[in-house]
Amino acid sequence: MTKQERIGTRKATNLSLDADLVADARDLGINLSRACEDALRKEISAERGRRWQEENKDAIAAWNDWAENNELPLDKYRQF
């Protein structure tokens, strides 16, 4: 996505942030919008991962159980 496309998809939002953090960020030249976007992307990714694991925990447990009781399909090719 180009910079121009990112700018076109932005939405103005009001946030309440700790005043000292905002002052420190500004003093250090940190872009507040970018920092908030980056942190929000990480939080979204972590939550999606957590939900995926929760939704698939039965299948994961079944596969782990099968793997413990059977030879892995490609086990004969392992070199470690």
Largest sheet: none
Q: Care to count the β-strands?
A: 0
User: Which regions contain 5 or more consecutive residues with pLDDT less than 50?
Assistant: none
Nearest-integer average pLDDT? 90
Spatial shape: elongated
Secondary-structure element order, as H and E? HHHH
Short description:
This protein is 65% helix and 0% strand.
Task: Give a verbal description of the structure.
The protein is mainly alpha-helical and 80 residues long. It has a domain of 52 residues. 65% of the residues lie in helices and 0% in strands.
Topology:
Layout: H1 3-8, H2 19-27, H3 32-55, H4 57-69
Keywords:
80 residues, mainly alpha, 4 helices, elongated
